[in-house]
Amino acid sequence: MCSIKEVIESAGLPAERGVYTGKKKPAVYCTFLRLNKGAALRADDKNSGDRELYRVTLFCKGNFEKSLKLLTEKMEAAGFYINGVDTEHYETETGYWLIPVTIEILKE
């Protein structure tokens, strides 16, 4: 399985963990953070598989629908589960739309 960064970048979107540190931010980019890591299933006092939740945030100036669709399609094709696309938010100071996407990774 590819890393989250590799999958996002395969969609043509620059990506960084935590905060985007590029000096000149592109019109569209992503950041990602791990929210949670634990057992996917627990039975007979043993963990079975791993489960990780990540928040991928799409930053976009202008209409973000095409980029959001491409991002979620690439994530699903790489084997990640889309748990939800959360409330979009517009930052008047920067002109970026922020669209949080919660993804889940299951490992056996």
Keywords:
single chain, 108 residues, alpha+beta, six-stranded mixed β-sheet, 6 strands, 50% strand, elongated
- Work out the radius of gyration: 15 Å
Helix content class: 10-25%
| Tally of structural domains | 1
Straight-line distance between termini: 12 Å
* Shape label: elongated
What does this structure look like?
With 108 residues, this protein is of the alpha+beta class. It has one domain (4-89). The protein contains two helices and six strands; from the N terminus they run αβββαβββ. It has helices spanning 4-10, 65-77; strands at 15-17, 28-43, 46-60, 81-85, 89-91, 96-107. Strands 1, 2, 3, 4, 5 and 6 form a six-stranded mixed β-sheet that branches. The longest helix is centred in the middle third of the chain and has 13 residues, at 65-77. It starts with a helix and ends with a strand. The mean pLDDT is 90.
